[in-house]
Amino acid sequence: MIRRSWVILALLLLIPGFMFAASCAKKQVVSEPGVTPAEESAEARRLAAERARQGALEEQRLREQRLAEEAKTRAEQETMAARETFLDEHIYFEFDKSRLLPESKAVLRLKARWLKAHPGALAVIEGHCDERGTNEYNLALGDRRARSAKTYLVDLGTAAERLTCISYGEERPLDPGHDEAAWAKNRRAQFVIE
User: Fold this and answer.
1) N vs C: which end of the chain shows fewer Cβ within 10 Å?
2) 13 or 177, which is more confident?
3) Predicted pLDDT at 31
4) Rounded to whole angstroms, how far apart are CA atoms 172 and 180?
5) What angle do CA 32, 38, 42 make, to 5 degrees?
């Protein structure tokens, strides 16, 4: 029985010892085949180059987008400026006349170009007079002035349907003065875009 106790005691000591020794044994490192440090460095350089190329492409795309937006803004500003010029440039007439002066024809040629560039635009030609004469006479004279401008624009190729004439006679003076300088400003045809 003593011998049996010694065997049990020996087993009790040996089994944990073997387990301890087996668990502390060095594990062998098995390297994966294929990737060496030089290959890792080459892959890192390739990835960095790809990121740099992608970044350059994105910068180029953003630059082109910005330039396109600037060009669009510039074009819109030019269009607005041309529209304002169209509206702000009046044509003027001699006293008691509806005949177009050479400088009025030059202005109308510019207006015809603008109308051609903007085929959807409709214009109203307003005929105006100075305060001399009766209301009825000035309304008729204002109408003749508006129609002479319309006829000239139609002759330059603008569709007649795009132009409407209206006369205000002496009702809407540009200059409220009562002298020749004021009257010269009031003998006009001006344009409104519908």
Assistant:
1) N
2) 177
3) 56
4) 17
5) 110
| Token pair belonging to 115 | 């109308």
Strand partners, 92: 188
- Say how far apart CA 123 and CA 61 lie, in whole Å: 41
Per-residue pLDDT of 90-108, as tens digits, reads: 999 999 999 999 999 999 9
Q: pLDDT tens digit string along 114-149?
A: 999 899 999 999 999 999 999 999 999 999 999 999
